Amino acid sequence: MQGNGFKIFLAVFFLVLSGYYLYPSAQNYFIKQDLSSLDSEEAATYKRENFAKIRSVEEKALKLGLDLLGGMHVTLEVRVESLIRELASDTDDVFNDILRTATAQVETGDESIIDLFVQEFERRDPNARLSRYFRNESAGIKRSSSNEEVAAYLRTEANEAVTRAISIIRDRVDRYGVTEPSIQQQGTRRVIVELPGIDDPDRIRGLLKGTARLEFRLMVDPADNVRTLQRVIEFYETGVDSTASASDSTASASDSTLVAAADTTLDINDLLNTTEKKSGNALLDVMQPLGQGVTFGRVAEQDTAKVNQLMSDPRVTALFPRGVKYMYTSSPVGNTAEGREVYDLLGVRNEIELTGDVITDARVDFEQFSNTPEVTMTMNSEGSRTWARLTGANVGSNVAIVLDGVVYSYPNVLQRITGGRSNITNLANQAEAQDIVTVLKSGALPAPVEIVEESTVGPSLGAASIRAGLYSVMIGLLIVALFMIAYYRTSGIVADLALILNLVFIIGILAGFNATLTLPGIAGIVLTIGMAVDANVLIFERVREEQSTGKTLKASMEGGYSKALSAIFDSNITTFFVGVILYSFGIGPIQGFAVTLMAGILSSMFTAIVFTRIIMDYVVVEKKKTVSFG
């Protein structure tokens, strides 16, 4: 094999390297096979005892895409209209109406909501300035700023909001532990998220949509709460408020050496009796009145929308204590006789005393006596000072810890809290606690996001796709192999060996670069099987041409390989560049196809030019055998 030493070294090196990268995939397969043979309890024990090993193997194994492994495909849309509202320093009815009009228009067109907002604003009053609503000295937006300058400012903020949202979503997904997620921007305000292997879609929805807006608020005065309940019930009894308008309350707050809130129970027997009668009272038909402490009432899950509608009536909101709104608890507090979950409706003050911006760390802990999960948060120095002042001024009262518009806990303040520590309690399970920690550590989304499209691929469908892909690869390989043997005889067998090695190299390249194998990727492999023998066909035809001139077999091989190189390089390099373009500008399935196409081109060129030449030289030169080229 004189002169082929380097070629042999390369072939052995790449073969060993491919085996090295594919070994974890083989390990992962056998581990899953072993786990499937165990019962659930034994499997759980094995996973717990070998967690580090299993996790390491999974991280190094060949990744399967959403269409093969199963999982979720989610399209998120950043609500830019909410960002515009938040950026406005002062709003009025005109601003709100213009923003509503622009929001409605963007649903039916392709224009940016910012452009539509500015157009609608100028249409109503060409001489008005947007700077009356938007001020940001650091961004150069002043009272004298033109509408074009304000519009450019809003576009910059919107673009940064989408970029920031992608970063936060990626951080949350990574913390959740999803294997090889795909997160990409689509258009100006949409984000495509593909999460293979997901078995809890509801949890993922909450994780992706949660804005992570943590707020600490004081709560309604218990006496004001029960008076408000009486007024609202009477309103829906008679349609008229017979009492004075709601009085202002000096709400109190709570939290701290945090303990569960103790309800201040007031006498509301008359109200409970009214509940039993339900004589045409729309509110009591869907809510059980409580009036205990800061709790307004109790609502079954299916009735929350109806209660929201009733409680948002302007004539009803006029009965609320000044500066108070009502929010639901995050977790159910019980169940109805039919087994439906029910939630408490709590009185919370509008003013936000403290936000999640002051949180520097969050972790999952367990309550000392009940061993229930909770989230422990640590604040920065500014937050610690505010927290100490807030708790010191409201000892004996409740403070609500609100995350994304729902109350997670509202403990009673026992004493002034220093050191900036606070807890979120009353959590359903450890998974919920971990999700809260995830969103708090990742940060708050700059604007709310909404799921506008979602699809789920089940594991069984993914397994069927894998089987179909394997069948297609095996059938394609068999057909090509039989054709090569039938047409080129002995040299066809050599080409088939190169083809098998080519498949090993392709999978090894994917595993080595931590790429993801998708169903379109398998299509790329099938295509590569057909293209892989193309180089050998060019070489073998050239060898036959050389033989027809009367040259020896060895000389014909030399001439055939050397003369076919230019054509092989030209065809494969141009195809490789097409794969690069597809990968650069494509998304999802197109990228999966492009990856395997590029890997297949590189490996097929190597096996066709180098590997087959090594075997041919060994047979013809070393063993002095005759090789048929058809």
What's the quick description here?
This protein is α+β, with helices and mostly antiparallel strands. It is built from 20 helices and 17 strands. Strands 5, 6, 7, 8, 9, 10, 13 and 14 form an eight-stranded antiparallel beta sheet that branches. A four-stranded antiparallel beta sheet has the order 3-4-2-16. Strands 11-12-15 form a three-stranded antiparallel beta sheet.
Q: Count helical runs.
A: 20
CATH class of the largest domain: Alpha Beta
Q: What's the helical proportion of residues?
A: 40-55%
Note the overall shape. Answer: elongated
Helix/strand/pairing category: alpha+beta
Question: What is the CATH T-level topology of the largest domain?
Answer: Gyrase A, domain 2
Mean pLDDT: 81
Explain how this protein is built.
The two termini are 25 Å apart. The protein folds into three domains: 5-49 and 459-622, Multidrug efflux transporter AcrB transmembrane fold (Up-down Bundle); 77-180, no CATH class; 214-444, Gyrase A, domain 2 (2-Layer Sandwich), CATH 3.30.1360.200. Helix 5 crosses helix 8 and helix 6 crosses helix 7. The strands form four sheets. Strands 5, 6, 7, 8, 9, 10, 13 and 14 form an eight-stranded antiparallel sheet that branches. The protein has helices spanning 5-36, 40-49, 51-60, 66-69, 80-87, 93-106, 113-124, 147-176, 201-209, 222-238, 269-277, 304-311, 314-317, 381-393, 430-442, 459-488, 490-512, 519-548, 553-585, 589-622, and strands spanning 63-64, 71-78, 182-186, 190-196, 214-219, 288-292, 295-300, 324-328, 334-335, 341-355, 359-366, 373-379, 399-403, 406-409, 421-424, 449-457, 516-517. The protein has 630 residues and is an alpha+beta fold.
